[in-house]
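B., you asked whether I could sanity-check this one before it goes into the benchmark set. Here's the sequence:
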Amino acid sequence: MQILLIEDDLETARFLCKALGESGHNVDHSDDGEIGLQYGLKKEYDVLIIDRMLPNRDGLSIIENLRENEVNTPVLILSALDKVDERVKGLKSGGDDYLTKPFALSELQARIEVLMRRLGTGAENSELKVGDLILERMSQKVSRSGVDIQLVPREYRLLEYLMRHKGQVVTRTMLLENVWDYHFDPGTNVIDVHMSRLRSKIDKDFDETLLQTIRGAGYMITDGV
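And here's what the prediction gave me:
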């Protein structure tokens, strides 16, 4: 799942990025309201987590601007303001849920799952399929032909990204930026190592090969050859 976190409390942000990342999510973070808005306008996310009070642009203004630009991604508002009228303002601005600080991580994760279920437009938002390979985004379970496949968080994020771009060539740069959050080439074979491990889990014991290496271009996942 692709998540944007706009939070200026760096301790809270580090905790959430680590916890959500360990749960298999890919998290982009901004501690600035204006920069966070640009992230939300330019990149596709599954859920936005936005703090109410932010430098340069407050959370409600961000949400209103996103909605005006027809960005309908579910938004969870975080705020220390817990009065009823503040929660109402947040929801009326275009937010979908409101969680007051301090909060338990388990509650935040549960609210994210509820948003995805309640606001999804169909199975494509909760389940990805390529041939007989199925990735269930809510439970983060992966199976092929009914056989469960165990993936570590990085492998899960890699597979999810590939499946979201089914039939498209995914370059190494795209993977570095969107799965590893690197905006530079680390000069290692990290992608090759993880791709090899992923291929051994989703293709090795099956008749059809789903994960293709496109020489000189990148990788692509298809319905099978």
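One thing to flag: The domain at 2-119 is CATH 3.40.50.2300 (Rossmann fold). Otherwise nothing jumped out at me.
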